Amino acid sequence: MDKNLTVKDIILSFKNRANEHIIKDVVCSLGYDISGEMGGKWTVKIDKGKVIIEDGLNDPDVVISMNDEDFISFTLGKLDPVNAISAGRLKITGDAQIAQQSAKFFKKYQIDNGEEREELVRLRKILSIPQRFSTGEVMGFFLNNLKKKKIMANKCPKCGRMQCPPREVCAICKVEASEWVEVGPEGRLTVADIVFYASPDPLTGEIRKTPYITAYILLDGCEDPDTFWHEIDPDTPHEKLKRGVRVRPVWNEKRTGAITDIKYFELVED
Amino acid sequence: MRDRKREVAIVGVGQTKYSSHREDVNQPEMISEAIFEALEQTSLTMDDIDCIVHGNMELFEMIYQPDLWHTIGTGASGKECLRLTTGGTTGATLVCAADALVASGMHDIVMAIGFEKLQEGHTTGGITNMADPLWGRKLQSGALVGITATQMIEEFGEERAKKASIDYRIIMDMHAMKNPKAHRRLGLNFDMAEDLMNNSPQLVGELRMIHMCSQSDGACVVILASEDKAKEICDRPAWILDHVTVHREEHMGTLFGFKKEKLTHRHAAEVLFKRNNINDPVNEFDVFEMYDPSSWWGVDWLREFLLFDGDEHLKLVENREILIDGKFPVNPSGGVIASNPIGATAMVRFAEAALQIMGKAGEHQVKKEVNKALASGFGGTFWTVLGILTADKPER
Fold it and tell me: Is A218 close to B192, i.e. CB distance below 8 A?
């Protein structure tokens, strides 16, 4: 590592590294709380294309905390931010989205050693694939019933298991599961997952709003352990998501014969 | 699987360094690094290789004939070449297929290549698309599942479960620090447990960022040879004693009822151990390279693979028996949590188990002599590949 490079040099270089076309409409402030010998506290204010650097933390939107050596490694691309966060070496307090976007506000820091390196090219592509899936007769029957606010399971004539969503044959006994039984709509929660990680919804391509709650529900009339996989009202207090708690579906007004016909399940309060 | 025409051994292993940043090479260039290492280790040339088995998870980079694009990097031109994709288990399936090609007498020396360049695609998006498009796709959040954490906390109490999971994570990082090829080497120690388990960002429930595996770029190559060639190529080859592949129905709902269903891991272990007279896995295996996508699954799956019922799996972790110099070393390589180039990941388990038998694991070599090793692969809606490697040539 370049021994002469200091944290302060890097902070001051933000001014010259600004990507003006990206920050021309941006107003925000980033705080840097860097520990260690070279450390210090700075606020980098971005105001519609201008970059102002101030000493101290002056009420920034987000504070990025790390030690001096890590900060230099991070700037030089030698420390992966995700790894640093998981190891607790990089802490982000406040509006994490601003911290994430700030990577685009500034050009990469380059050590000036007189040599010019040819930059390797990376091509960015986004694929969008329109798809059409046939439901088949059995799944089609099930989805059509959702339009009528009915949840249908099909029963295995051999082992009695209730498949929901249904399948043509019992996956265990391999015999045709021809008997339809209306189940639910209420049931009991077996286990819930509270999802904080924002991933894209493959049905819409949009980043999902977090946290949301996915859950496995044993619908009334179904047989354990054939549970029904859906979501719980995201506003439900997490501590109420107890094993065995009763839930009921909240139906969407507009139903199209899809999983989204049920908005989510909500807790049945006593 | 014991009904084979001839015995087969792993005679050579090559791996790239695993990393989140391989923008300096394209896919065939990256793969060739692992191939050169394996050839160098075995003193073979591409002319000695009869057949190539090539695989990854095509959904991640969205390239559907990677084997053709990669020919320039794999040296497959003019050779028989197969492409395989079985999700997370791909790497292990490649080893099983190569084994079958040699055991059957069809080829003498087969090279299996597993790779992934996850930075070129979207891993969580790719995995989410594995779910049934009519139902599960809306609900799947990639491979991120917090339920095992919830279940372990329910069964063993919050403090004990969280501590075991983070201790497992720290042990894996201590191992990764000994493996220069590992992707994530964070320098964790047991003093950091409290801070990490409470402050690492939450992904799903109590599954936090620190618990979860990485997304890596990298390739792994394994060379398998028939019994008459193996000894010529390698002084101490790793013989393939047996392996088993277990799938379950694709619907995840049955896994998470009130009643706990048997996992494929346990079923695979029961079948494999019975077939090979393994009665006491902890004492009979010298090392276990386990496909552990998160530290919660790592701890929980020890219970399944080792056929425990109570809390013996927690005790193995709590008593630090799974450390590289412990009674039952688990993942001296650092495991999947440290490095996860998905199409190669399950192969790395077999490759690392083989290196331990060969005595070529370097700084992360288990101190005691490794005569019998267990390796597992995991993928999809809970599938398992489980295999046993031995230093002694199996008797037919």
Answer: no
